[in-house]
Each structure stands twice: as C-alpha cells, then as structure tokens.
Design goal:
The chain is α/β, with parallel strands linked by helices and 352 residues long. The protein has helices at 12-24, 61-70, 85-90, 93-116, 155-174, 196-206, 225-238, 255-272, 276-279, 313-319, 327-340, 342-345, and strands at residues 3-7, 29-34, 51-55, 75-78, 124-130, 178-183, 185-187, 210-213, 219-224, 244-247, 252-254, 295-298. It is 41% helix and 16% strand. Strand 5, helix 5 (155-174) and strand 6 form a beta-alpha-beta unit. It catalyses: dTDP-alpha-D-glucose = dTDP-4-dehydro-6-deoxy-alpha-D-glucose + H2O. Its EC number is 4.2.1.46. GO terms for molecular function: dTDP-glucose 4,6-dehydratase activity. Keywords: Lyase, NAD.
Length: 352
C-alpha cells in the first residue's frame, strides 16, 4: 500500500490521475493538495471515496512537511502548476512563483522528510512536465526525445524548464528518488475551458467566434488524458530513478485540423442528438448552418512555437507504454462528455 500526495489534484490532469489511480489501487491513501485557484475545482473529484482534499499552497513548505510526516507520505505526484501560455505572457510572475519556487518548496520538504530524517524510507517524487520545454520544431525536424536540448520560448515553458532542472539537481545532488515525465497536449474530461478543445466546443454551442492564431498551422501532438495517466502510472511503478520519460499520444495534428474536427463533430451531434438545438439556440448548428462559419483568424500569439512532436521510444521500450486512443476516438469521447456534463462546465465560464 502506498500513501500518495498529489499536488494540483483538483485540476484537469491531476484529477484525472487521482481517478485513474483510485480505480486501480483501491487500498492506497490519497491526499490532494491544491490551492484551488481558478483552474482548481473540487467538483473534479466528486464521487471519489477516501480522497482527502487539502486546500493549500505548494509554496508553503511547512504545510507540505507536515503532510508528509503526519500522513506518512511515500509518493509525491507533482502536477501543481500554472500552465496557460497566454496567461504567462501577460503575467509571468505567477508562473515563476508556482512552477519554480513551488517545485523547490516541494523538493525541500521531500528531502527533509525522506532523506534528512535518516529514516531511509523508500520514496518517489514524480514531476509532471511538458514538451514545451524543448522549444519549437521545424516541419522536418526529428521529434523531441529525452536528450533534446531545452530551448523554452515562453515564460510558461521557461518556468517548467526551471522546475525540471531542480528535480534533476535534487536527485543528483541529494539522492532524492525522482522521475520526470514530459507530456504533449492533453485533452479530455474536466479540462478547464480556457484550452483549445473545451473552449472551442463551448464557443460552437454558444455561437461565439473561434479565434485561430496566425494561419492555424501550428502543430501539436495530442494526448488523451487517460492515456497520459496510464503513462504516469507506468513511470511511477516501473520507471528508473533519476530518469525522464516523454509521454505522447502519437497524434501530430495542426491546430486548424483539430478545429475542423471540433466543428464537424458538433454539427453531427446536433443532427443526431435530439434537443441540442433547443438547448443551444445560438449555435450555428441549431439553424442547420456549419459551426465552421465561426472560424476567425487573429494575430498570432507572441513567440508561438510552430511544432511539437514526441518521440516515445524510451517509455514504450522500457515501460511498455501504448496510448489506447487515436484522436478520432478520444475526441468523440471528449465531446460526448462535455455535452453530457454541462452542469460541470457552465459554472466555470465566469472564471475565464
């Protein structure tokens, strides 16, 4: 039996991980530490048994230390982060504080609890990061591997790069048992509606513009959040200490293609699901018009990386990772979830 502390466990990926872990590890104790900022939502954990949510800041090293000691934590899964690139451009300070200072706070507390006390307790500190730390790829460049040089281009990716380096340093300097995973673009249930897929789905329903940066041909590797959680579980249970593993979905798509998929799927849902037109009368699909009519090209984002792609060779060969969903299947599941769970996302619209 393990005792887990999951930071940011009321956010999108963190909550999906808690649900994933609880379903397969019923005897483990799970404590979620989350500051419950705009993207943290206790409703993401609704219905889960024996998951204790503690509202608190990862920068509060004393609080983290008490949780590690009092709850005999032996595993930290560190999701807590500011993650929206646009927000990092307009307000980088919060990203440095949470992603760099907050991660260092977690590492200090873990070192004190697991190493300085002399207990010799087996432990694992798993750090969840992003492929954005590697920078931008050209159209013919090889995909990011674990040995790709870091070249972050936004305050967000720079702050995540800093946190990655701190985790590495605590392993190599102090002997902390750490692993890091760098993932590609996640999508799926419980994603806060500031990110592309839920934002554009909801905009289609309300007849709002779909703002497309630049020419819309920025390419991302899309990863269903459940496949990501499966990958993290493999790293936690089988990954070698001190190692980094890249986790991707193997679905490299330009943003414009993703947006076209969203528009087509929404149109099909209105045609096949009774009652959507009455529920969302402002949607173009409610009038038999294409959702694609909402597409609007806007000035590109500052420093917008052109292409990301993940080389999954290491996590596949060492740990047996295999994503179960291609984008078509994963997106269909995601659309159905959002259409069936309006009571979850509607209260969040005022926080955007």
């Amino acid at each position: 039996m393990a005792n887990l502390l999951v930071t940011g466990g009321a956010g999108f990926i963190g909550a999906n991980f808690v649900r994933h872990w609880r379903s397969g590890h019923g005897a483990d104790e799970i404590t979620v530490l989350d500051l419950l900022t705009y993207a943290g939502n206790p409703a993401n954990l609704a219905g889960l048994k024996e998951v204790d949510l503690v509202e608190g800041d990862i920068c509060d090293t004393g609080l983290v230390s008490r949780l590690l000691k009092d709850r005999k934590i032996d595993t930290i899964v560190h999701f807590a982060a500011e993650s929206h690139v646009d927000r990092s451009i307009s307000g980088p300070d919060a990203f440095v504080t949470t992603n760099v200072v907050g991660t260092h706070s977690m590492l200090k507390a873990a070192r004190r609890a697991w190493l300085d006390s002399g207990s010799g307790q087996p432990h694992r500190f798993h750090h969840v990061s992003t492929d954005e730390v590697y920078g931008s790829l050209g159209p013919n460049d090889p995909a990011f591997s674990e040995t790709t040089t870091y070249e972050p281009n936004s305050p967000y990716s720079a702050s995540k790069a800093g946190s990655d380096h701190l985790v590495r340093a605590y392993h190599h300097t102090y002997g902390l048992d750490t692993t890091t995973s760098n993932c590609s673009n996640n999508y799926g249930p419980y994603q806060f509606p500031e990110k592309l897929i839920p934002l554009f789905l909801i905009n289609c329903l309300y007849g709002r513009n779909l703002p497309i940066y630049g020419d819309g041909m920025n390419v991302r590797d899309w990863l269903h959040v459940e496949d990501h959680c499966q990958g993290i579980e493999l790293v936690l249970t089988k990954g070698r200490t001190g190692e980094t593993y890249n986790i991707g979905g193997g679905q490299e798509l330009p943003n414009l293609k993703v947006i076209e998929e969203i528009c087509t799927a929404v149109d099909q849902a209105f045609a096949s699901r009774g009652g959507l037109a009455a529920k969302y009368p402002d949607a173009p699909a409610a009038r038999g018009e294409p959702s694609a009519s909402l597409k609007t090209f806007v000035t590109d984002r500052a420093g917008h990386d052109r292409r990301y792609a993940i080389d999954e060779t290491k996590v596949r060969s060492e740990l047996g990772y295999r994503p179960e969903r291609d984008f078509t299947v994963g997106f269909a599941e995601t659309l159905a979830w959002y259409l069936d769970n309006e009571n979850w996302w509607r209260p969040l619209l005022g926080r955007q």
